[in-house]
Known about the structure:
Helix content is 37%, strand content 16%.
Amino acid sequence: xxxxxxxxxxxxxxxxxxxGDRLKESPKKGLKDFAKKLVDSKTFTNKLxxxxxxxxxxxxxxxxxxxxxxxxxKFPFESPFQLEELREFDFALEGIGFQQLLRMPSxxxxxxxGAVEADxxxxxxxxxxxxxxxxxxxxxxKEGPTPFYISCPYGVGSKFHTVEKAIARGKVGGLRGAALxxxxxxxxxxxxxxxxxxxxxxxxxxxxxxxxxxIPCFADIGExxxxxxxxxxxxSLSKSNMxxxxxxxxVLVVDxxxxxxxxxxxxxxxxxxxxxxxxDCAVEWIQQHAEVRVSSFDQIWNxxxxxxxxxxxxxxxxxxxxxxxxxxxxxxKRSIAELAAEHGTRLQKRRIERRPREVHENGSDSxxxxxxxxxxxxxxxxxxxxxxxxxxxxxxxxxEPGTVLxxxxxxxxxxxxxxxxxxxxxxxxxxxxxxxxxxKLLAVYVGSHPSEFEPAWEDMSMWYQVQRQTKVLNIxxxxxxxxxYLPQLVASGRIMHxxxxxxxxxxxxxxxxxxxxxxxxxxxxxESVATTVARNGVFNTDEALRCCHDCLSALRSTVSAGIQHGxxxxxHVIRMASGERHFYYVLVDWGHAVLEDRDSPAINxxxxxxxxxxxxxxxxxxxxxxxxxxxxxxxxxxxxxxESLEAALQWRERSWARRTIQQQLGEVSxxxxxFADYVDSLCGTPYPVDYEIWLRRLNRALHGxxxxxxxxxxxxxxxxxxxxxSSGTSGASYS
Length: 735
């Protein structure tokens, strides 16, 4: 949103700071001298002993000294990555080639040989190079060289060298690890503020608890935190800004077989700077202002020295490298979710290739067991027809107007008659009526057919619209969230297909293309504002104010329960008739809603918030920032065709800096312009949105100042609350 992002703002995930905060931001004096004195990792690690002891004692009662004992029992640190996050990353890496040419030495005597130690550093260097290069080409750009190189430090404050130079000088034993360094035409030697990621090489990383994994020990974590802090201090002092977002450092810890990730996050400007007690100050900052996360130490290299690219241990290291590249070069052109979604297409193609195909007289393709013993089990090769077969099968699942669709769950069956096709090639959405209440229109979402593999990845778009949205709407229902501006869950379950069903169990599936297909029924059904604008043109003042008010009411209802929408766009707001000439608006499609910190919002280059584009997470004001972009579009603002995330971020920065959005909204309504100014000052910060005051201002602009009490139908409890206007909340009424 704003140019010249400060380290304070970055550390809090901010893109723009409020006016009061900008006055407080000033560089820390003495930080450079402080960093120069922070040179001994052992002293730093020893100072952390009490903190580690407390963490160990919380997880298990232990009596032996911490430097002699690993963490047994429940590990006291959370992992930087969730299992679902690693699974999605694994799907995204399908088809991406990783090749480590130099093998990692292995064997019980590997750490005792100088020649083997040199080979290990060469293998580590090749591993980091192969990972960074493949990730860059897959997610960012296949054109031109990779903007990183690998170099090795002897310690903090030292120069960086290649492994070959260290071998030639006989100083391999003094190397601390290998670093992924951002290329800089002005300096080819490498500097600490250019380090994107550091991999520490240990003779024996972690403590062996089982044959398949190791538990990170105190010495490993302490040294990783020391180097992570030094990297962050160097970035804070840097004038080159090679690492754009310096509030987080990833440090890999590896030996000749195992490896893990330590992530340190925090604002170094909050550190108490005292050059006479640098280690005490650093440790206090770790304890009070930093977030430390440590992964398990899993196997990276097999006995032949080859990297297990698809295993959990290697995926953790690659994901840390991915996020480190994001810190330096910004978000990729293709997101993890986008590449992971292609898994569904590959899965469908594989299913077609491995099953017999029989063409019926009507020309449609079906997949079933051959009853003829001569052809039983025969695999028929399909050449250049798989994509066509996928399309034909999906077309066979389309529902025509007039079709009666039966839905079943574990308790009952209900029928719905299809009236109109509302979706497109990316989603199966229909309007329908219940056979029990034929007078009320309902929305029917039809998901993708589940296979024997992971059904959630068959078609990510449909999965979010049906299964994920069903979960979100059920949570809203359980928490008592009800509003006329929110969709209501009517029913969910699985389609009952016509004809006999040969499934073997209640939760099983037969060969019919509809069998087991998930379905979601919601209310109400309306026209998207994207369709309204395409047909009628831009919104007038009343329509824009009403849309803003109703969407804010919906967001106010859900945010009280910790739910954010995460995907606000013209396609996800529908217009409903309220009388002959009046309308209200409903915020629909909650499949990408963020329920907890590990959830990722949808990425829309036109309407996602700046923070979502940069961090793939939401700040408290992300949804209202997306709402401002929506209002800008509805009021005639031009959003250009944005081909990349970088272009999207640049457009946002220019638009807010030039006040283009505020000027456009100001031509429609002064209150919308004021709302955009408020959002501009709030976005990217950890501060909550004051929904109440803006709902009052919007309501006054819509109904006039002397309306007395007004009825708000968006209360989270589902009841209508009288909200009296306070004369002290705002100034003169807006028109």
